[in-house]
Every structure is written in structure tokens, then in C-alpha cells.
Amino acid sequence: ASAEKDGYEHFMMKEIHEQPKAIKDTLSPRLNDEGFIEIDEFNLTKKDIEGFDKVMVVACGTAYHAGLIGKFALEKFAKIPVEVDVASEFRYRDPFVTDKTLFIAVSQSGETADTLAALREAKARGARTMAITNVVGSRISREADDVYYTWAGPEIAVASTKAYITQLVAFYTIALDLGLKNGSLKEEAYHRVIQELKGFPEKAEALLQYKKDIQFLADEQFNSTSAFYIGRGIDDAVAKEGSLKLKEISYIHSESIAAGELKHGTIALIEEGTLVVALATQDHLYDKMLSGIQEVKARGAYVIAMAKEGNQEIYKTANAVITIPDTFDELTPILSVIPLQLLSYYIAVARGCDVDKPKNLAKSVTVE
Ligand code: G6P
Question: What role is this protein assigned (predicted)?
């Protein structure tokens, strides 16, 4: 079994390390020789794309969190309104879906019952349906009109890591493609983002080199009974995934709250020693995050902050700082999630948890 794990102690760690390759394997088949995105498996014409008046993304768990990033990417690059919903909610309301809706189901396994049912519901209402999935021939891939395969390779650990990162790559490439085709994105900006994305396997690899520092933080914090993840903008979506990772595998109570919402309730729970993980990777929100960090510090929180390298102020404000390589604000999620995965992993290991097979959870939930 250890051979299957390539010498790593757990599949989760192996899969975290496979992320640079997974990014590359998902991105490169979608880039043609001229440096344009070409998603062969899509049969969307320019006319189809111009006909959509909204995108509806539906998924569960980690895939839902990828959808939240997808919303940012699609709204930013393709200027099209996006709704994101959890599959179990979508199908029990009366969702506003028409033949002008592009519906995207995201599912690592392609077998999640709620997501499949949501896809069928959207189809019945006339939407154009698309699946982002990691499993060729899965039920969701067979039923959607178009399929975008994430080439993460088999994911064994229950907690999703490399599949999530490839779902992000999928959304960025779809958003850029739609944006160029519907005229929202100028060719120059489009190429700049693609160029930056091409450097991500290397940037992700560089981040993995800091794992000892993260293990050190985990060894200090593993006894926490409660954790709060805060962020703004796209960081809020990444914070949600970081928080889910922690609770899934370490069983520490953890929640994620948009930093600006803290003062409307959650700050009441911050006390001496409470662990707060604060994401501050967005330039235009950086100062606001610094004051958010000060607010929780003033109430005794122990703050692990994440920022782009080169930010100095944050070292004075937070208790510990994790940095990510410099990149465009829109693209940080592909990098910022990696230290959060590692933090959860090392905390779970320090607590003696069964990292790959957490209690009460299944890799894919094929019943309602
Ligand atoms: C389960 C897994 C999660 C996963 C979710 C959705 O709850 O434990 O890790 O994110 O299902 O799975 P899917 O295969 O649809 O992405």
C-alpha cells in the first residue's frame, strides 16, 4: 500500500503533491499552438455563448467551493451573471432556469446523487448543461450536454485536494474562453492571464517546499477546539474550502465567515487563543483585512495570516504569516488553497486522525 502512496504516509499528502502536475495536465490540453484556449469537448458556438443570460453552477462540498471561485472568474472575465448553489438546495426550490441558462454541474466523482438530480432538473427546464468532472464515463458526464474533464487522475483520499485545484483551472479556462468569444475580454488581457496561468505548476511546486513551516504551525495549534477562517472577495471563497478541509479531517469545529461580517455575530465567539486563519491576498482588500485581523487579535485570537510575498505590514499584525508567490489577484485561489490543505493535513496527523478516511464521510455520496 505504501508503494501506491509513492512513499507518502497518506493518499492525501500524495495528492497534495500531485497538484502541480494536475494543474498542468488540465491546462495544457486546452491550449493550442497559437496560445489560445480551445476546449475541444465543448460544442458551444459564438452564437450559443452570446445567447446565455446567466450561468448556474451547482455542486456539493468541495466542488461547490470551486463553483464559488468559478463565479468570480466568469463574472470578471466573461461579464455574465453567475449563481452558485448547493445541489441539495437547488432541486428543492423552484429555480429560475430557462433555455438561456448555461448550467454547470461540478463533481469530482461524477456520481453524487444530489448533483445528478440537479442536472436532470436543469435539463428538464431547458438549460444547456455542462459537467466539470474528473471521472470519464461517470453518470454526470454521460447526461450533460458537454463535458470538461479535469485531468487530476484518481483521487483516493476522501478530502478532495487535487480535484478541487483542477476544477479551478477548468473555471478559469472556461471564463477566459467565454470572455474572449463574447467580447468582454480584450485579446491582450486574455493572453496575459493565460501566460500567468502557464506558470502555475511551477508556483505550486515552489509553495510545497514550505511545508515544514506549515507543519511547525500545525504542531503548535493542533489542540485548538475551534477555528475561524476569514477573508474578503475571492479569499472568502478559498477560506470556506480551507475551513471545510480542517473540519473534515481533524474534527476541529471550524467555520468560515466573510471578514466584513464578523462584527455582525461571529466575533462574539473569539476569545483568548481562538485560532483564526486570515486570508489577505487581494491588493484592493488588503488594508481592510489588516483591520479585520486587528479586531480579532484585540480579543485574544491567535492569527495565522496569508498574504502575497512582499507584504510587510502583516508581519506586525498577525501571529504567524504564510506567503504565496506573487500573482494576479484573480488567480490567487489556485495557490492559496495549498497551504490551507497542508495546515489541515498536519493538524489532523498531529491529532492522530485517520486522514484518508475520516469518520462519517464518504468519497462520493450516491444516495440522497
Ligand atoms: C463528498 C466528499 C467531498 C466532496 C463531495 C462532492 O461529501 O466527501 O470531498 O467534495 O462529496 O463530491 P463530488 O464527487 O460530487 O465532487
Answer: Catalyzes the first step in hexosamine metabolism, converting fructose-6P into glucosamine-6P using glutamine as a nitrogen source.
